[in-house]
Amino acid sequence: MSLISIHCADEIATITFTNSARRNALSNAMIEEVLHAVHDFEQNKMRVLVLRAERGVKVWSAGRDVTELPQPCRDPLEYGDPLEIILRQVQECSMPVIAMLEGSVWGGACDLVLSCDIVIGCPTTSFCMTPAKIGVPYNVTGILHFLNIMGANLAKEMFFTAEPLSAERAANFGIINHLVQTEELEGFTYEMARRITRNSPLTISVIKEQVRLLSCAHPLSPPTFERIQGLRRKVCDSKDYMEGINAFLEKRDPSFKGE
Amino acid sequence: MSLISIHCADEIATITFTNSARRNALSNAMIEEVLHAVHDFEQNKMRVLVLRAERGVKVWSAGRDVTELPQPCRDPLEYGDPLEIILRQVQECSMPVIAMLEGSVWGGACDLVLSCDIVIGCPTTSFCMTPAKIGVPYNVTGILHFLNIMGANLAKEMFFTAEPLSAERAANFGIINHLVQTEELEGFTYEMARRITRNSPLTISVIKEQVRLLSCAHPLSPPTFERIQGLRRKVCDSKDYMEGINAFLEKRDPSFKGE
Amino acid sequence: MSLISIHCADEIATITFTNSARRNALSNAMIEEVLHAVHDFEQNKMRVLVLRAERGVKVWSAGRDVTELPQPCRDPLEYGDPLEIILRQVQECSMPVIAMLEGSVWGGACDLVLSCDIVIGCPTTSFCMTPAKIGVPYNVTGILHFLNIMGANLAKEMFFTAEPLSAERAANFGIINHLVQTEELEGFTYEMARRITRNSPLTISVIKEQVRLLSCAHPLSPPTFERIQGLRRKVCDSKDYMEGINAFLEKRDPSFKGE
Amino acid sequence: MSLISIHCADEIATITFTNSARRNALSNAMIEEVLHAVHDFEQNKMRVLVLRAERGVKVWSAGRDVTELPQPCRDPLEYGDPLEIILRQVQECSMPVIAMLEGSVWGGACDLVLSCDIVIGCPTTSFCMTPAKIGVPYNVTGILHFLNIMGANLAKEMFFTAEPLSAERAANFGIINHLVQTEELEGFTYEMARRITRNSPLTISVIKEQVRLLSCAHPLSPPTFERIQGLRRKVCDSKDYMEGINAFLEKRDPSFKGE
Amino acid sequence: MSLISIHCADEIATITFTNSARRNALSNAMIEEVLHAVHDFEQNKMRVLVLRAERGVKVWSAGRDVTELPQPCRDPLEYGDPLEIILRQVQECSMPVIAMLEGSVWGGACDLVLSCDIVIGCPTTSFCMTPAKIGVPYNVTGILHFLNIMGANLAKEMFFTAEPLSAERAANFGIINHLVQTEELEGFTYEMARRITRNSPLTISVIKEQVRLLSCAHPLSPPTFERIQGLRRKVCDSKDYMEGINAFLEKRDPSFKGE
Amino acid sequence: MSLISIHCADEIATITFTNSARRNALSNAMIEEVLHAVHDFEQNKMRVLVLRAERGVKVWSAGRDVTELPQPCRDPLEYGDPLEIILRQVQECSMPVIAMLEGSVWGGACDLVLSCDIVIGCPTTSFCMTPAKIGVPYNVTGILHFLNIMGANLAKEMFFTAEPLSAERAANFGIINHLVQTEELEGFTYEMARRITRNSPLTISVIKEQVRLLSCAHPLSPPTFERIQGLRRKVCDSKDYMEGINAFLEKRDPSFKGE
Ligand code: NI
Ligand code: NI
Ligand code: NI
């Protein structure tokens, strides 16, 4: 059974998350389907991709499937993790990707949305960065996705409080390109997509790649990076990491000791 | 016949684009005049430069003169191109440069405005980034000018849709420092200029230079840059590039094939 | 006599500037007290630090104590200067630091606020960057603090005009995370602090450190930096620098010659 | 007719240039064959690749085929040029590549040898960097290959004089890993290859990739790179460039004017 | 029982490895002793540190104690590993450290020697980089230590062949500063140490720190580093890694499959 | 009276230091003459510059004139210092510069020689890096000049011991391109110069600039650089700095306390 549906028309491709039962959690299976779809769209020279959930959902995506997190003492955001792979694919594919957002966006799904090129939201949209609630050490590229869109102080508020960011604040701070009424969301998004299809796909794909490379152009010295990796490892090896995941799975509040 | 007029008073220099007939297109001839003017202002120790069009214009500047683009298979945004030279001069001169904007700003003129230090707009102001409409591969420093002012998602919307950005959105996203009524535009701008003249010109010019250098401090490895250059070259060599320029000159919609 | 008061409750530490008589100027003595307090909070595993002034103050902090600036021909923002040390401590400590702002914030105190992780303001809050008024050459890390929070054009307006930035504009541009009514300021701030204490302190401190390192990741080549240092030295050695400090101490307007 | 011969035994692959008639010039056709061969070796999990010419040749490779240089006003060392592609393939493939050198190595073939992992030479080996003799603007990655192996002063001597560097000096300066007698060249090289096949191929390929990335880790700011590109373009567009190529093809000394 | 002996005279400190029975393997216990000793020398303002083994040893140090490598699926060269800590301490301490080498130097001990400031060897000295023999993925800072001393081709020969590098070749390639007769080794080393003690310790320690920082100044973008970390992780998780360690402990040749 | 003599023939310019009485110390007056000469050679399109002393001198140059060092508490190697200016001019001028060395080279003159493109020496040549003998904090670009030519361990030996490096070791380590007999020095140097004049000056000057930029491409983050500057300032402000200069001028051994 498929966890997404796909649609192509007028050089515009659409991926719709259809696993509302599981709140469109980014499970390995669902990511696998997205990877294949995007790959095919590129082959078929689609010019824009719209990433969306079904109409009327409360949750656009609940983020990574916590039941699939690796065992303790292993980096949960490793380069080869499916979530990391899909984030890179969205950034590296030649088509612009528009995130069309109805409902709340959680954890890794926030990172996915920030990896899209353009974000259209509506009043029910909200963002919630959960790693500090679960105790997960975030990775450097993931944090960089935030810093390329918003000021460091807002990124830190999102990560440190793990509270939802409303559509209105998101639009004010430029995280959402356009905030429109829910009933106009589709019309607005596809009208923008259509305009993009009329422009030069070569120019667009090269500019997209240039923006990606400039966004990565915050290089760190090797000892700095190895130090960060060492700090992150301590978090993965901590009791709090297990407490956070267990609390999440047991649907209770975690009790963190800082150890 | 001059394409600009210049004025100096109270240590405030002003360049006014006066070629409304050609919508103040940034032709080689006009850029040449601006270069000389800025050079003289520096010699005469002017403390602020206001860059503006004539009162009541619909178009502040239509951007680069497309009839002067180089022949196919040549980089249209090369380091020695007059537009690139004027962008650097505006950034490197010791005076703060205030862009005072009435009317719409197109293509290379957007880049010029973003290269200014402070931007004052009014309700008729709008910005439209046109390279994807013409099929021009943008250069890395040009894209960086956008990323130092706005989030990557907004920059990509401007480049990918090539649709006008309204004064209101520009102000919301911080592209325009102040959005004031059209009739207050001059008063507001020159009042700010006057305040700047009272402050330490040495402090200001060094901070301006530091901001410029930090804005450039997104270094790329040599193979990354040569790869970008290779991608841009494919665009210059493409059929779409010729189609884009021809369509523009023939005032018809281009038909891009991605080849 | 102490220049600050400190308070700890529920893993939330608070530093209150209590030297309103001197407008909470960041004197060496006051910085020394803050350094000790933050150090102790870290030892005692506080989870959040709130940095604030007393209720109802007009001036949150007047910034660096100008009477303590070094003699001419010496860099006033040197690495070992107490102000620089406290900025680094706030950035490097493992607790999130929330700046809770009532009243105006001047010069080096703006830099302190931007070095905090989250900023909560109220209608009386304003920011004023004064170095160009006094003739002080700002340092590279200081300018970088601004560029990591706001667009380059807004940073330049603040530095070049040395005019106050209102709470409203600061909130629009994302410098203030939340703008709330003065009477709600405390309640709002401590509610946010409480939420943070419930999350994983290990995750938070590592993300804070990653954001810090990514914010610094705008590297410059050695000749570029030595050139900046040479430019800054010329400012320290200039007549204008002495004029600026003297004018400030004599409470008169400076007359800068650019020499 | 093939321009190379290939051989595989004991997990050691060998490519032998067999076009002595054309002094093993790196023509597009020959590069194409090498590309395919290396690709196949990787598929077949070969553990080492030896790159060599036939026994007793005077010229190991004369470098790029000058008759195939692009027309004037086009970058002759563009990212998509076959020579550039083969240099990257040699650096990026997972097997160590040993250059086994008998005879002289010219121009682009020097760059190919420096892109190999290990270099074994004999008394007839010599290196000659010819671009200044022909008037070709070298690319940044090419120059970086030299700087990662030798001091800047030696690289500049090679480029500026375009004189042969003897096997002895090359060995002294570490360009050649081992200088052995011609009759021992094969035995020595394959003995080293055999030792490598006994070690962990995973460890080796990851270290090779790390060395490659660290060798590239000399990042340049975007304006610096665009400036270099502008300087190189002036060379391609110059009269001297045409003079250099014509003189080479007419087998006469060029007469450069610096224009 | 101590694994090292220490000695101080004339502001010259000496650490002598005294665990010849275990071939001075860099066990956690021995590293712990070195860490304390260096720390004390710094407190006591020693001006030079000589790092040596006992007279007449065959093996200066066999490198890291393989029996202490972490279990599979864990990074064996993690930031907090004792070997990594001692490498950083040697680089970061304010005294110059002279490695005085008699006998062979293996694996992690090569990295320790390259982390010293000056290396004095004698004819019995040799270097052998063993990670490819055991199947260990080397870390980025470790590889960088090699690239800051020798050409990339020599570093790759050492890593890929895991064969000893003789004192003579090491001296030729500049890895050893001075190659002297074994009986002159002590006299020569301490004479150099004495000369250093006469010079300005402030100047020396700042230059040492500058060289360290410049040696690290090969920054990598975040995705590049996370990709390397992903590649290294595959090696740690591979069957070959277990095979390599087991073979070493069982004193037999490993049989690597590349899996 | 002139401190240098200049000569031009066959597109080869020569500067000869003629102030043997003062051991060709790099006084401000002498540097001024060199600056003018190089500027004129560039205007006159000279193709190579030979930098030399008079035949038979014992001292090629004694380095910076210590009597002209700035007063304490001021950076002696500031960006605008004449020595720094001449180093940059030699690196940035379009002609290759060959240092032809007879006699010993001291302190800042070593830096000048390393800033040249090619170095030819003879048996009387030697190098001595004296800052640690005088107590001067070296600057970052100066140290980088060494690291681009030699391994970090050799650079540290030169700086830490302040002992002469013989011509033979210099040649072994590649600091000297060619070591020839004293009587052949002129013939050899001018023969190389002549060969360079026959090659493309455009190609050569662009490659020279690329090597310069790649040599600088070791970028440091702003806090790293400000920390180095702070460390260097402590040295300038120390008692040892005054002791070092006084001892030098009084021709006695300094007694450094590390304070
Ligand atoms: Ni940045
Ligand atoms: Ni940036
Ligand atoms: Ni390097």
From TrEMBL, chains A, B, C, D, E, F:
<keyword id="KW-0413">Isomerase</keyword>
<dbReference type="InterPro" id="IPR029045">
    <property type="entry name" value="ClpP/crotonase-like_dom_sf"/>
</dbReference>
<dbReference type="Pfam" id="PF00378">
    <property type="entry name" value="ECH_1"/>
</dbReference>
<comment type="similarity">
    <text>Belongs to the enoyl-CoA hydratase/isomerase family.</text>
</comment>
<dbReference type="InterPro" id="IPR018376">
    <property type="entry name" value="Enoyl-CoA_hyd/isom_CS"/>
</dbReference>
<dbReference type="InterPro" id="IPR001753">
    <property type="entry name" value="Enoyl-CoA_hydra/iso"/>
</dbReference>
<protein>
    <submittedName>
        <fullName>Enoyl-CoA hydratase/isomerase</fullName>
    </submittedName>
</protein>
<dbReference type="InterPro" id="IPR014748">
    <property type="entry name" value="Enoyl-CoA_hydra_C"/>
</dbReference>
<dbReference type="GO" id="GO:0008300">
    <property type="term" value="P:isoprenoid catabolic process"/>
</dbReference>
<dbReference type="GO" id="GO:0016853">
    <property type="term" value="F:isomerase activity"/>
</dbReference>
<dbReference type="InterPro" id="IPR051683">
    <property type="entry name" value="Enoyl-CoA_Hydratase/Isomerase"/>
</dbReference>
